[in-house]
Amino acid sequence: MTQTLETQAPIDRLKIYKSSPELLEAMLALSAASAKDVDVELGELIKIRASQINHCAFCLDMHLVDARKHGISQQKLDLIAAWEEAGDIFSERERAALALTESITELHNGHVPDDVYARAAAVFSDRELGQVIAAAVTINAWNRINVTIRQEPRAALK
């Protein structure tokens, strides 16, 4: 009889940041570059929403802590998964960034729709739009690495 994934003993996962320190260095540089000129609170909302979609517990834990440190309200954090139905709790810039983040994160659905892109382009300067796109792409990269290696919340990057 074949075992299911749920009944198999967990396998040891690569400690990628230890075995490939240049990857960690490059990812940290990408993170710093993509965060330039992006409002810190908006950046955290982007990171949280992508991490929710990607089921990255490590990144969710980290960025929820960071969001609270930066003064993002608990109400926003509670409602970010349902931001479209949250009324005026999120600004138009936040809603545009969250819509764009979701489209970038869910590329398996096809592409970033023109209306989503246009909504973001209407509220961000070219520089800001580029940085919002970069922020969403960067957190998606972090999510995919951490989910693959099953990086646990608050685990040391060893």
Automatic annotation (TrEMBL):
InterPro entries: AhpD-like, AhpD_core, CMD-like
Occurrences of domain Carboxymuconolactone decarboxylase-like (ranges): 21-102
Pfam families: CMD
Domain of life per record: Bacteria
Signal peptide range: none
Protein name: Carboxymuconolactone decarboxylase family protein
